[in-house]
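Before the break, one more example. Copy the sequence into your notebook; we will annotate it together after we see the structure.
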Amino acid sequence: ILASARANPVPVDWAAYRPVRPGFLGTRVYDRWDLADLAAHIDWTPFFHAWDMRGVFPRILEDEKKGEAARNLYDDARRMLDRIVQGAWFAPKGVVGFWPANAVGDDVRLYTGEDRTGTLATFYTLRQQTAKRPGVANAALADFVAPEGVSPDYLGGFAVTAGPEEVAIAERMAMENDDYGAIMVKALADRIAEAFAERMHAEVRRTLWAYAPDERFTPEELIAEPYAGIRPAPGYPAQPDHTEKKTLFRLLE
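Here is what the structure looks like once it is written out:
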């Protein structure tokens, strides 16, 4: 099964495509990202799911059965979000890195330099092995990186956090018997972290890797992921093996 899956990769005409070199190699740290910027990029639909209110924002606010409760929850969330931003409760931090890379079979090999003679690390991607109908590939993430010896390519990665301050703030609220506030802070910190990932990915596409420098999407449009490229992560269906985080976090230090 594995042999037949490997014989059916995603077809890419690498001869017709020249990978774009990132603006820098190695890592870059962001010690404090603007909270107001991240607040503007929040996807509110998963926020309501965290409160067991299924529906799509903003339509859920007008839902016949859940609308009133959703509006009250949203109003509370916006008020607390304003307090978080104005009081600088969190200090969002991030790190992003780019490395020379090429695919070797199902793996992605990272190199110590542009001469590509020394191996820095290897990411082991997992190939789909279920039976596919004719014309559908058994994909692996390595399929989207130029094969070794064909063309110089690169791999990027990043990690972000809304900030560790959330834990102490939520604990303090719980100690003050404000369980609702504690849960709200945690839910908003989760949304800010996810907004940071969306925002950092946009920064990569437009500026840092700059393979889409003319991209112009509003925060609302970004939710539908209309941009070029993807943002897979260990644990996602495209790479369900969480142990790859060890390699990623070591590279990002």
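The beta strands are 26-30, 93-104, 107-111, 119-124, 153-161. The chain has eight helices and five strands. Try to locate both features in your own notes.
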